[in-house]
Specification:
The structure is a homodimer of 506-residue chains.
Chain A: H1 3-34, H2 41-59, H3 62-69, H4 86-104, H5 107-130, H6 133-154, H7 160-168, H8 174-197, H9 212-226, E1 233-237, E2 243-247, E3 250-255, H10 262-280, H11 297-311, H12 315-328, H13 330-333, H14 338-344, H15 359-378, H16 386-398, H17 423-443, H18 447-452, H19 457-466, H20 476-484, H21 491-504
Parallel strand pairs in A: 1-3
Antiparallel strand pairs in A: 2-3
Helix pairs in contact in A: 1-2, 1-3, 5-6, 6-7, 8-15, 8-21, 9-10, 10-11, 11-17, 15-16, 15-17, 17-21
Chain lengths: 506, 506
């Protein structure tokens, strides 16, 4: 073996240790949300805190730095050998990025942030339950302060918020997000207006009682049809649905199921299934390296939204699956037409809660949070004024305002866990998914017939070929450019929405 | 804080890290046996191998050695301060023991043993399935060889097997076990003969169909009645039942449930519940130190057997619970008398499989394995002759012999996983439990009425006071002496059995 390959393997070996620890932490997290006995939380917190400490030490260790430095100049980013193939070169660049970012922080800062957010998350739950923003306020103030320090530590070119977005969506800037959202916002507001002109009255059948077990069977069938088999992907229940992966051969989804609200549960399966399919098809060969990691939060979200919204809300999808759903629930659905069902799942209506929002209003919830985060981080907006500004913006954008903070600025956990900069990736995921869909349709002009015949396999194959197999070799922007042959823009996503909703609401 | 206390806390802190890692490994193990998707096994093996490596490094680290050495002379065992209370002194002695034992090995030896036993466990499964001892033989030969080396590394006074027993039952020797078993063996053989004179015909009702869910409900009720609440103790299903603890506030039991064989499932709940109650009542305050660890495998087994055999097979226990079982399964049990039920669960019959053995024959299975292990380790018996000797001994002790090795020397996994020296602790558990029961009866002369009234709380309180709260402060022998006021012997266990079975089979 050449020296260069030996040196590369040394980096891989250290990186794999980090990945193994991360995957162990994932199991701790999964268990916490699924089966852990209630009183287990105290020891679980200690376990996770301890693992976080070890992980941080490993990620920033001298040994890792030395191993990396033999192959890439950490200062300039120049790769010091031409004996490695382009994928390995890209891997080195990702490793470098991660190492540099992690090294900008220090253990005490990381621990303190963890402690502050853990306390804030607890306070947020209380505040939300009691609808008392004042309980959360001092915590939010501290978290904003810490996020400002975090941004300074990480560094940025133009706006401190750049540094925060970059944690979740590498190489994406505030200015770019702003520009994308500025196109999206008026478009969506107009689409809501069009949709509201033809408001379908709410269809009662959708809120009928649907036996829990049957819902779960149907959800599981969808997951299997997507290409997720039971021997590497399991589905459990949790309060908030999520997907989490230990390894491509051990991926775990959770869903919820109430007798009411069946469609929400079905779409949850597709959403988490989209995340899971990505994780399950990352390279096993390169496990532990950036070549077997997902690109960014936004690209991950593009996968869940692709399956949930674009495929899972499409006409051909329900041409195939609605008869199956009907035969599972004949009492509730036998007399419902496919058209009526299709209209019902596309009902557009401004609402207070992001996670229950429809496809058209969803991104506006994100834009609202983005605008506020930006002002909070730049200091233009003070934490104490959040409820007032929130309600004002809700009125402005949606024409409705919450009657309580619990349904307003306290609805999401993200700020409490310190995740400033994360929200935009939800909307970016939608934008990415629109551009990917356009590319898919070019490669598969018969997509609609295939899905109508119940064939989803070509989707997995296409996603594998174009996204999954690359791991983190390309940045989100590079990947989108590569798949669609053009720069990232909102055009495809907007025409997808426009075409679809103008047809439904014509 | 005094310097000594500071030094003690430093040891505690390092020891707690080891415990946290161990508890994380426990979760990996639990998940492997309960919910892990089948294909997850490859990454799980890597995770466990990696944790084992880290754990070994921590247990034998220079830092730990230095911290300990400030308080105790590792060479002589002399505690270097008189400022610590007796419990802390005892903790230092346990830490010293563990450190010295671990340090006698080296990472390569530990890794190799892990690899060999992992391969052997796989070969054993195959061999058992195909009833082909020859598949297992070369692996067993390697394992015996490694166990002999292990014994040399650990060191011993008289017999290499001393070193192996000591892993699981500290301070217990081959000679002592031999002496206990020499008293037990003829006694049990005689008791079988007495029992067989009055063989009750097998009661069919016990093998009826009992709905799985109701069995599990009943098992759960027993677990709760023992003092194990849902918020810190959960019950799941696995192929082989086990109990495993992450912390006193996160203890996990598994059971199996087939429609047939309900009683086996009920007794499994009591058995694993006995282990769980011990773990759940170890000191939270001292978590991570020897004062919050169990004494030995034998003492742990004494707890499971206490609940399963002594309490769970007692007349007053079923006076209270049989009517409940009847009302759960009226079709099968309404016409069965308590006496008939009681006789049926006490049927004594030599059988081939250890795990299905009754209370009287059980220890003889252990004695057989002990005798063979002794000869295998001392070289008197060759691995290739194991089947022949096994069958011969079965005939000699039980009067029956297996028609296949799968039902003979291949039935247990213990040798495949390298656990030579473990088997005796199963019988020691029974002997301990008999002596503990005698002590309990002295403290609670009304034990029988209390249990007959469905009060099990006093048992937990008594076990807490006498066993659980001490952690590993005393050795097994010291603890038994302390609780019962006399040295360990088989007398109490034999009179318990004698009294009970002579009454049933009079």
């Amino acid at each position: 073996m050449s020296d260069v390959l030996k040196q590369y393997r040394e980096v891989v070996s250290l990186s794999k240790e980090i990945q193994l620890m991360t995957s162990i932490d994932s199991l701790l997290e999964w268990d916490k949300e699924t089966y852990m006995p209630e009183q287990g939380i105290r020891i679980r917190s200690l376990q996770k805190e301890y693992l976080a400490k070890i992980l941080y030490e490993k990620k920033t260790s001298k040994g890792f730095q030395e191993a990396l430095s033999k192959l890439i100049d950490l200062e300039s980013g120049k790769v010091l050998t031409d004996a490695l193939d382009p994928a390995k070169v890209a891997a080195l660049q990702r490793w470098r990025r991660d190492f540099i970012q992690d090294s900008k922080l220090d253990r005490d800062f990381v621990s303190e942030l963890a402690r502050i957010t853990s306390e804030a998350a607890h306070a947020w739950q209380q505040a939300k339950r009691q609808n008392a923003y004042s309980i959360f306020l001092p915590h939010l103030e501290k978290i904003i302060e810490k996020n400002c320090i975090l941004a300074e530590k990480l560094g940025y070119d133009q706006h401190p918020y750049d540094a925060l977005i970059d944690i979740y969506e590498p190489e994406m800037t505030t200015a770019e997000v702003k520009s994308l959202f500025e196109q999206l916002k008026p478009f969506l507001i107009e689409l809501i207006a069009i949709s509201n002109k033809h408001d379908f009255s709410e269809k009662g059948f959708i809120h009928g009682d649907f036996a829990r077990e049957l819902q779960l069977d149907f959800g599981k069938k969808l997951i299997n049809d997507m290409g997720l088999a039971d021997d590497f992907c399991r589905i459990d229940r949790s309060t908030h649905p999520f997907c989490l992966s230990l390894h491509p051969k051990d991926v775990r989804i959770t869903s919820h199921a109430h007798c009411k609200n069946m469609m929400s549960n079905i779409f949850t399966h597709l959403h988490e299934g989209g995340h899971a399919l990505y994780e399950a098809n990352l390279s096993e060969e390169h496990f532990g390296t950036p070549l077997a990691q997902s690109v960014s939060s936004g690209i991950h979200e593009s996968q869940s939204r692709f399956w949930e919204a674009i495929i899972g809300h499409s006409q051909p999808f329900w041409e195939f699956y609605f008869p199956k759903l009907q035969s599972l629930f004949p009492d509730q659905l036998a007399s419902v037409s496919l058209q009526s069902f299709y209209q019902t799942i596309h009902r557009v209506k401004p609402s207070l809660i992001r996670v229950h929002a429809d496809e058209v209003t969803y991104c506006l919830h994100i834009i609202l949070r983005f605008e506020m985060e930006l002002d909070l981080i730049s200091g233009k907006l003070k934490a104490k004024d959040v409820p007032e500004v929130w309600n004002h913006k809700m009125q402005q954008i949606f024409g409705i305002a919450p009657s309580s903070d619990a349904e307003g600025c306290l609805q999401d956990i993200h700020w409490a866990i310190g995740a400033f900069g994360y929200f935009p990736t939800y909307a970016l995921g939608n934008i990415y998914s629109g551009q990917l869909f356009q590319a898919l349709k070019k490669d598969h002009p018969d997509w609609s017939q295939q899905i109508g015949n119940g064939n989803l396999t070509f989707l997995k194959t296409w996603l594998c070929e174009n996204i999954y197999r690359h791991g983190r070799r390309y940045s989100a922007k590079e990947l989108i450019q590569k798949v669609s042959g053009k720069e990232l823009s909102t055009i495809d996503y907007m025409s997808y929405l426009s075409e679809k909703y103008r047809k439904i609401y014509r």
